[in-house]
């Protein structure tokens, strides 16, 4: 997608003195500054994932794949392959794309001679990123008719989204935003309600920024305004992303998604989850009991970053001495999900629905 009129991706390669150099957009600097940086080592890739310089399940997966490639540049031995895998695996626990990507790359590297591993790892990381671009584009192709149907009846389509499931969270297009961008580019009258998404404000900071860069009409609202807007008939459809979707259609996404799904159900607003297939965890059935929920630092709740007259600064927003809890994700049961929008089509949120699109997974 575009930044100030120039095409960018959240992760890419440039030529460096040792071969391919991995570069990212530092998302902790957005929306107040647009800065890019190199990931010179596997340790920096781990830090970028853990400290949320990169965010979103697909982008985390691609970054982890490049992390293994960087590790093989440093030391292509069997011991370092295993150690780097473990470090990357521990960097963030919830997004299944991370495990999928490093499993994929590691499986391709283990049979190879150490001298062949760096080039093979970079080639596979590059392919994972390119595959994600196409997966996300196709999510938009299959999600677009959902918007077109509403537009044919009503004209303007009001869409509510939560967190950032845009191109910044993937390798391009986004998941929940891909249908929105394709609808806007086709000339449909769309407007997006953007949840701020506390505590990291990924909606207000990232989704609003990228929609603005693309020219898509949008309005930022506090997280708890979604139910009110739905009650008033001001939301036609919800699109959200997911960090892990179970075999039976439960969806694990940014904290607050469950409450939006409950409100949508009560107000008869369609609630769609947009995801590429690597986000489906075929080994998990019950999202509530089997998906690990990341608990992040309490400072993310007690402090907030903003732009003032003296520049960007961090201030405390919670009473001194009060403790804070910070679960980063929640699980939305499949019964609250209208449908799962994938690169192969729209599935019912159930094992049968997913297997109808992915019959090759029946034996998994």
From TrEMBL:
<feature type="binding site">
    <location>
        <begin position="55"/>
        <end position="57"/>
    </location>
    <ligand>
        <name>substrate</name>
    </ligand>
</feature>
<comment type="pathway">
    <text>Amino-acid biosynthesis; L-methionine biosynthesis via salvage pathway; L-methionine from S-methyl-5-thio-alpha-D-ribose 1-phosphate: step 1/6.</text>
</comment>
<dbReference type="GO" id="GO:0019509">
    <property type="term" value="P:L-methionine salvage from methylthioadenosine"/>
</dbReference>
<dbReference type="Pfam" id="PF01008">
    <property type="entry name" value="IF-2B"/>
</dbReference>
<dbReference type="InterPro" id="IPR011559">
    <property type="entry name" value="Initiation_fac_2B_a/b/d"/>
</dbReference>
<dbReference type="InterPro" id="IPR037171">
    <property type="entry name" value="NagB/RpiA_transferase-like"/>
</dbReference>
<keyword id="KW-0028">Amino-acid biosynthesis</keyword>
<feature type="binding site">
    <location>
        <begin position="253"/>
        <end position="254"/>
    </location>
    <ligand>
        <name>substrate</name>
    </ligand>
</feature>
<keyword id="KW-0413">Isomerase</keyword>
<feature type="binding site">
    <location>
        <position position="92"/>
    </location>
    <ligand>
        <name>substrate</name>
    </ligand>
</feature>
<keyword id="KW-0486">Methionine biosynthesis</keyword>
<comment type="function">
    <text>Catalyzes the interconversion of methylthioribose-1-phosphate (MTR-1-P) into methylthioribulose-1-phosphate (MTRu-1-P). Also catalyzes the interconversion of 5-deoxyribose 1-phosphate and 5-deoxyribulose 1-phosphate. Part of a bifunctional DHAP-shunt salvage pathway for SAM by-products.</text>
</comment>
<dbReference type="InterPro" id="IPR005251">
    <property type="entry name" value="IF-M1Pi"/>
</dbReference>
<protein>
    <recommendedName>
        <fullName>Methylthioribose-1-phosphate isomerase</fullName>
        <ecNumber>5.3.1.23</ecNumber>
    </recommendedName>
</protein>
<feature type="binding site">
    <location>
        <position position="202"/>
    </location>
    <ligand>
        <name>substrate</name>
    </ligand>
</feature>
<dbReference type="InterPro" id="IPR042529">
    <property type="entry name" value="IF_2B-like_C"/>
</dbReference>
<dbReference type="InterPro" id="IPR027363">
    <property type="entry name" value="M1Pi_N"/>
</dbReference>
<feature type="site" description="Transition state stabilizer">
    <location>
        <position position="163"/>
    </location>
</feature>
<comment type="similarity">
    <text>Belongs to the EIF-2B alpha/beta/delta subunits family. MtnA subfamily.</text>
</comment>
<feature type="active site" description="Proton donor">
    <location>
        <position position="243"/>
    </location>
</feature>
<dbReference type="GO" id="GO:0046523">
    <property type="term" value="F:S-methyl-5-thioribose-1-phosphate isomerase activity"/>
</dbReference>
<dbReference type="InterPro" id="IPR000649">
    <property type="entry name" value="IF-2B-related"/>
</dbReference>
